[in-house]
Specification:
mainly alpha, N-utilizing Substance Protein B Homolog, Chain A, 9 helices, about 0% strand
Length: about 190
Amino acid sequence: MSSSKKHERRRARESALALLYSSDITETDAKALVEEGRYPAEDFDFPEYAERLVLGVSEHSDAIDGHLAATSENWALDRMPVVDRAVLRLAVYEMLYVDEVPVSVAINEAVELAKAFGGEDDSSRFVNGVLGRIARALESEGESAGEAAETADAATAAPADEAEGAQPTASEKLPAPMEEEAAHGGE
């Protein structure tokens, strides 16, 4: 994929995230916001791919939330920070329904969104862990787009500490769900 197409997709994901966030905090259906052109700002850029993402998340919300609830046992969806929940929903939609986006790319893009916009200091790590568990579940169920088998372990590695450039050890790559969710404030 060309660099400009990657950049366009990233901007589309950011736009979709903003709209999903707005939808969640205003308790307004995301599909209605798109159809009515009610965007978070007047000069809001809303690319075609962003519309596809938002409408897809809206259409498949029950299945997406089911996957999230099943993999974040000690962290209820309604208790997650709104931005983190929106990032997770976008990524799960891409993992399940967008064949041209490899699972590893969906996870990596979600981690980048969480780093940039996440509601907590450890949002990117939390998002990474939840999506990694979903990727492994998809792999074992045979539902993945074919990439989960080779990328689940690599994609779920905890991001390196950017400030210090430290690489995670083998034991840090995939923390136990209870520890990770507890660190993020789960019950």
